[in-house]
Amino acid sequence: MQDKVFCETCREDVGYRIWSGYVHAVIGDKHIGYFERTALCEKCGREVYVPWVNDENIKSREEAYAGAKV
């Protein structure tokens, strides 16, 4: 069973779905690209905070940065 998280828009605990997309970013003088996930409220569709999603995004971003060339 999926955990529920608090949606600031709905003002209640809700289920969520995960959207994944490719992100391009510039950090300093490095151009990086990586896949990032976003958790969306099942009721209103707005973004909600899910700790494991945030942790995975940080890891993906750091790995992309470490492998990027100047």
Explain the overall architecture.
β3 and β4 form a beta hairpin. With 70 residues, the chain is of the alpha+beta class. It has a two-stranded antiparallel sheet. It has a two-stranded antiparallel sheet with strand order 3-4. It has one helix spanning 51-67; strands at 5-7, 12-14, 16-27, 30-41. The protein has one helix and four strands; from the N terminus they run ββββα. The mean pLDDT is 93.
Number of separate helices? 1
Which overall shape is indicated by the principal axes computed on the Cα atoms? elongated
> Which class do the helix and strand fractions yield?
alpha+beta
User: What share of residues are in beta strands?
Assistant: 35-45%
Number of strands: 4
Strand order of the largest sheet: 1-2
Low-pLDDT runs of 5+ residues are: none
The ordered string of helix (H) and strand (E) elements is EEEEH
Q: What integer value in Å does the Rg equal?
A: 15 Å
Give me the oligomer status. Answer: single chain
Helical amount among residues, as a percent range? 10-25%
| Biggest sheet statistics | 2 strands, antiparallel
Our measurement of the CA-to-CA distance between the termini, rounded to an integer number of angstroms, reads 43 Å
Q: Mean pLDDT, nearest integer?
A: 93
